[in-house]
Amino acid sequence: MYLSDMHTHSIASGHGTECTITNMARAAAAKGLRLLGITDHGPGTLAAGTSSYFRSLTYSPKKHFGVELLYGIELNILDRNGSVDLDQELLCKLDYAIASMHSWNYRCGTRAENTEAFINVMKNPCVKILGHSDNTHYPVNYDVLARTAKETGTIFEINEASLAPYGYRGDTRENCFEILHYCRKYRLPLLLSSDSHGPEHIGDFTYAADFVHQAMFPESLILNNQIPKLKVFLQTRKPI
Question: Is the confidence at residue 93, as pLDDT, over 90?
Answer without folding.
Answer: yes
